[in-house]
UniProtKB/TrEMBL annotation:
The keyword S-adenosyl-L-methionine does not apply. Residues 27-262 form the ABC transmembrane type-2 domain. One of its GO terms (biological process) is response to antibiotic. This is Transport permease protein. The chain crosses the membrane at residues 29-47, 59-84, 105-129, 141-163, 175-201, 241-259. Belongs to the ABC-2 integral membrane protein family. Keywords: Antibiotic resistance, Cell membrane, Membrane, Transmembrane, Transmembrane helix, Transport. It holds the Pfam family ABC2_membrane. One of its GO terms (molecular function) is ABC-type transporter activity. The keyword Methyltransferase does not apply. It is found in: Cell membrane; Membrane. Its main location: membrane. It is a multi-pass membrane protein.
Length: 264
């Protein structure tokens, strides 16, 4: 019990340091927190069409951007920053401290959670003020939103840590990770209505968590009858939860097995 308590304590302390370091990097703050808001403003201004009765493209896009934000703040950021920390010796120095791998993971997970909360609040605020986004009034929808964010953040975090061993260096990490995220965003219905994409793209996207996260978020922010516009004619929330849990478990196992403090 004492070991678990100490692991959690060190993990929380590490997360506070992670947040401080993040806030000192202006480029990261703008790209991570405000870039989705900028995209919302651009797409919401350009595409004003109604894609279904009572559903504007802006409302559809907000749901996708919240899901995509989980990938940006979790998978993309960690898969890029961890190789950089490995190259500059940060991880090697941490290895010589009482910090365990679990505490390091906890620190990263809490950082992702904090950033995701801030990013989501910004998206919902600007979406409501600028594009008249209709926020849910049903408590059950907010419950669905909560577990989607928790599962999505956890899944994105462990997958980012797992993928961080793929880039050969911190300098080239962005070139490896960013294209993958962009492709998945296009294939998963973030920038386009999912059912308007070619069938093979839909099938490919269904293999990855982002497609299911975007669909889950649409169930929160779009009218119930919009479910008939989905591929299966249903929100498939049970299937969404199952797939996210599977990816979470796989990502955690791979993270634990492959994580390295240094290249050697």
């Amino acid at each position: 019990m004492n070991t678990l308590k100490e692991t959690l304590r060190i993990g929380v302390l590490r997360s506070l340091l992670e947040v401080k370091q993040f806030m000192r990097q202006r480029e990261s703050v703008v790209f991570t927190l405000f870039f989705p808001v900028i995209l919302l403003f651009i797409f919401g201004t350009v595409f004003k069409d109604t894609i279904a009765p009572g559903v504007t493209f802006s409302q559809y896009f907000v749901a996708g951007m919240i899901a995509s934000g989980l990938v940006n703040t979790g998978f993309q950021q960690l898969a890029i920053t961890i190789p950089m920390e490995r190259d500059d010796g940060t991880l090697k120095r941490l290895r010589g401290t009482p910090m365990s791998v679990s505490s390091y993971f906890i620190g990263k997970a809490l950082l992702v959670t904090i950033l995701m909360i801030v990013q989501t609040i910004l998206l919902l605020f600007f979406g409501s003020v600028v594009f008249d986004l209709n926020l849910p009034t049903d408590p059950m929808l907010w419950w669905n939103f909560t577990w989607l964010v928790i599962l999505g953040s956890a899944c994105s975090t462990v997958l980012g840590i797992a993928f961080s061993v793929v880039p050969k260096s911190g300098r080239g990490a962005s070139a490896v990770v960013s294209p993958i995220v962009i492709i998945l965003q296009f294939f998963s219905g973030v920038f386009f209505v999912f059912t308007s994409l070619p069938v093979w793209m839909q099938q490919f996207a269904a293999l990855f968590p982002l497609k299911w996260l975007t669909q889950g978020m649409r169930s929160v922010f779009l009218p119930e009858d919009f479910a008939t516009q989905e591929v299966a004619g249903d929100w498939e929330l049970g299937k969404t939860a199952l797939i996210l849990i599977i990816w979470l478990v796989l990502g955690l196992l791979v993270s634990i097995k492959t994580f390295k403090w240094s290249r050697q």
